[in-house]
Amino acid sequence: MHACHGDFHDPGAVRIDSHQHFWNYSPQEYAWIDGRMQRIARDFLPADLLPELVRSRLDGCIAVQAHSSLQETQFLLECARAHPFVRAVVGWADLCAVDAEVTVARLAGNKLLRGLRHIVQAEPDDFLLRPDFQRGVRSLARHGLVYDILIFPRQLAAATRFVQALPNQPFVLDHLAKPDIAHGERQLWERGLRALARHPNVACKLSGMVTEAAWNTWQPADFTFYLDVALDAFGEDRLLFGTDWPVCLVAARDHAQVHDLLANWAAKLSPIAQSKLFGDNAARIYGIA
User: Fold this and answer.
1) Interatomic CA distance for residues 225 and 126, integer angstroms
2) Residue 167 carries which DSSP code?
């Protein structure tokens, strides 16, 4: 893996993109990047993101795992160490392993690691209910780490039972559980999202939506229902803005288009609520100074 170098500081309020990725592209490691996604089949590193953050007046980001390996987690931590604008890392570890607690403790020794994630959307619907997985996740709370939940709407019921079993663990739902916006999926998703949101230890990232809509033909109005439901369900203290860059580039012009989509929707909120959405909640939940 390449090392990363750079620096960026903004003296203003903390504005954070809570969900983005870096990678050194290889077709083997990132096999989920298929033929329709050639635009992102290349390296994406902090130097590529920095101008986008500056353009949207964002002063930091959270780098999230996209490949299930400890090597990638170390690569992301190196990026964060070399680039102060990468405020935190949500990495990966095998939380089903018998020695998961040891691995989590070791990773938590690096204060830039603020959470872990598993690509549960690719697992059986009941994966979150596995006792070995829950035992691994249970070790996060004692190190002050967040667990990011990446699922599809059909897995929301299992996710609700999962967070109920771990009431002391902070959770963040990624991408609103990826509703099928292109086909107008609403009922099952809304019911599941509201049930999950009743648990106060769960927050939600308003991220990853453009790739669930009709690529390149979506309109801002396509997202209003989903954003309004998330706001009503989670409230202004448990919503986080994220772009899912560079994955968003398969369905959006650039990082700024995704930022502006959220900013325009959020214009109806109070200035305080907007500050929470665009950075304060992420800083609080992930423990970013």
Assistant:
1) 28
2) T
Q: State how far the Cα of 249 lies from the Cα of 24, in Å rounded to an integer.
A: 17
Record the tokens describing residue 210, joined without a space.
């453009």
Report the alpha-carbon angle 120-126-131, nearest 5.
Answer: 95
* CA distance readout (Å), 206 to 2, 6, 84, 179, 239: 30, 28, 24, 12, 7
Numbers of helices and strands, H then E, in the chain: 10, 8
pLDDT digits (tens, 9 = 90+) for 147-183: 999 999 999 999 999 999 999 999 999 999 999 999 9
Q: What are the structural domain ranges in the chain?
A: 16-286
pLDDT tens for each residue of 33-88: 999 999 999 999 999 999 999 999 999 999 999 999 999 999 999 999 999 999 99
Q: What is the pLDDT of residues 6-17, one digit of tens each?
A: 333 334 469 999
Is residue 194 scored above 70 in pLDDT? yes
Q: In the numeric block, which tokens belong to residue 150?
A: 């990446």
Angle between helices 224-234 and 255-266 (to 10 degrees): 60
**H helical segments located in 168-239:** 187-197, 224-234
Tokens 């580039």 belong to 249
Side by side, the strands of the sheet bearing 86-91 are 16-20, 60-64, 86-91, 113-118, 146-149, 171-173, 202-206, 239-241
Residue 90 identity? V
Report residue 162 as tokens. Answer: 């999962």
Give the pair of three-digit tokens for residue 211.
Answer: 């790739």
Q: Widest CA span of the chain, in angstroms?
A: 48
- Give the chain's end-to-end CA distance (angstroms, integer): 28
Question: In this structure, which topology does domain 16-286 adopt according to CATH?
Answer: TIM Barrel (3.20.20)
Q: What is the pLDDT of residue 216?
A: 85
